[in-house]
Amino acid sequence: MRKGIYILSFACLFTIGALSTGCGDCKNSTEQLDGDESATYQCPMDCENGKTYEEAGACPVCKMDLAEVENS
Ligand SMILES: [Zn+2]
Asked: How far does Cα 10 stand from its chain's mean position?
C-alpha cells in the first residue's frame, strides 16, 4: 500500500514540474516566434512581382504604403 502512495506522489510532482516548465517554454518560444516571424510587407499593387519587405514602409515604385502579408 505504501508503495502506491509513493508512486502516486512522485507522479504528481513529475506532472506538476513538467507542466510548469513546459508551459513556460511554450509561452516564451511562441512569443519569440511571433516577434521574429512577424509579417512581411508587400506593395498592395504588387509592383515588384511579389517582392516583400521586412519592415513597413512605402513601395518605391508607386509610393503606396506596403501592406502586411502573412507567410505560412
Ligand atoms: Zn507599388
From this structure: 33
Residue 37, SS3?
coil
- 41-60 residue pLDDT tens: 999 999 999 999 999 999 99
Give backbone dihedrals phi and psi of 69, rounded to 5 degrees, phi first. Answer: -125, 135
Give the separation between CA 15 and CA 9, rounded to whole angstroms.
10
Full-model pTM: 0.46
In angstroms, the CA 7 to CA 18 distance is 16
The cell 508551459 sits on which residue? 23
Q: Which residues surround ligand 1, an ion (CB under 5 A)?
A: 43, 45, 47, 59, 61-62
Domain segments of the chain: what residues? 1-38, 39-72
